[in-house]
Queue: 2 jobs
Job 1
Amino acid sequence: MMCRRFGKADVKKIVKEPGYYDEIGHWVPGEETEVKVHPAALLPLNPDELTQDQGGTFTTNGRKLICYADISKGQEVIGNGDRYTNFGRRDYDDYAPELNIYILRREDESDD
């Protein structure tokens, strides 16, 4: 399987705990925890994936994440030092059950 064979990317998903109001009414933001995703392969998007998504077009800075972890749409991911947002999951269950392929957009990209 490609993910196990080539899955050498350093990938962590960001789990955000919800914030809360303390006893005197001040907002306390929730903490972020980095959870290692292994095995994981982080690949460039192919030309079809650059324009195909419902959320619009992506740039060559976008990535495809192949892994067995569950990552929610909109959840942030750190891949090889860059921060990305998950824009959705591609369905490949017919080929490899439990394998997830996510389309990621790099966080520092502007929408102009």
Job 2
Amino acid sequence: MILRLARRTASLVALVLTPVAALAACDDSNAAVQPADRAQTPAIDGGLGADGAPSPSGGGGDRDAAGPQPGDGGSGDAAEPPRDAAPPGDADTSACPAQTQGGVSLSPGTPLSRPLVPNPIVSLGRPVTTTTGGYDATQLFAEPTAKGLSPWQPAAGESVTIDVGTGFHDLLMVWQIDYPDYVSQGAGFGLPYSYAIDVSPDGATWTNVVPETSTSYRSREAKFSFTGQSRVRFTMKASQSGPSFRAMQIFDVSNGTEDTWLVAGMGPSRFVYDDLEAPSFGSLVHGCRSKYYPALINISDLAPSISNFLTAIAAPAKDNWLTLNPDFHFWILTYGLGDVGDAGFASNLEAAVKQLLAAGKVPVLTHVQYVTPGNGGNASATAIAKLNTAIDALVTKYGLLPSPDMFAWFQAHPNELCGAGDTNDPSGFCGESQWNGIQPINVPSRPGVSDTIRLWAAAATAGGAYAN
């Protein structure tokens, strides 16, 4: 399992996550920030206008009809404006058995003022073909299963084509390869590689919508115009060592990209939020609120600290995480365990919140997870409690959404974390002493990963993200 590569230099780990948060953009003067001592913050809007259209501060990378969208690899279609979706009905925050079976532990927050406009998945169950001999390409676009699915390992020039049907104005494609970290640590495991995306109305005439692009990142996304088309072709153009593609998904974003979720963190987050274990985040939401199937991308990396994240979102465009992921609306930050003992954690985390807001994104914060005594990172419950106090203060100050309380959850379910002697976890982390008491395991009797994803779906529902 490629995640075994993560053994090299990993130190501490952060796990927990939060699914919804939203706010008007905020500048350095904090003019738009609710005072920390305010008794009650108003409901946040997730960057959405009252008519259901994204607002300038939270549009999540919607297409500009005048031309290309910076960094998304696609282009606008000036001939036909985006379709407007009617605002959904009232949010349904009622409990859903698939999301709550086994218990729920949530941290408080401020719910959205109205539910999200859907950007449903369109690639599930659709006809798929590939030029790679001997590979069943339908599994590349399928829901994850308990047994896992085989990756696609194309040679240079080989492609996969999916017929998603017609009637879509814009599509968002998301994919990831088999690699432990978001950022390549050097050549190997298929990085770097180059790719291109074409569309067709009939499988005979093709139009390029994403020109050949080289990447050194394991998870990628691209949004492109799809008016009058029915098929998407993804071609692996070149690679030094041959990537293994684990999953691909395509979403109808004709009405915007509100229901898109990005996870940035370190340590076990690199595996937990890959969403390759059944049931997936999208299926847990869809099974309870059938109009929705959220997009999720995991950009968690080896770099352990929130200060590393600040560097990444301020980097030059080619390697800037905001530029690389322009169409993802909610940004979930799972940092903390790598910041134990850092007096600058709270100020750095607040700086990240403000920069994300300024970029039109919706930051989501979450409690640092519980770790068992004697854990491989030597983190104490007292030290983690200090971090979580700082996180709670920012959630209140900025009116952020409720999220899973993974500290309380794993404190009540410590058997769902790796222990000495565990070697059967699909992540490849268990059995390595630095992850003992930290890494969630995922076996039938100890579903640490599955429970984490399930609690995120429950939190998103409780936060008012979805309507019936």
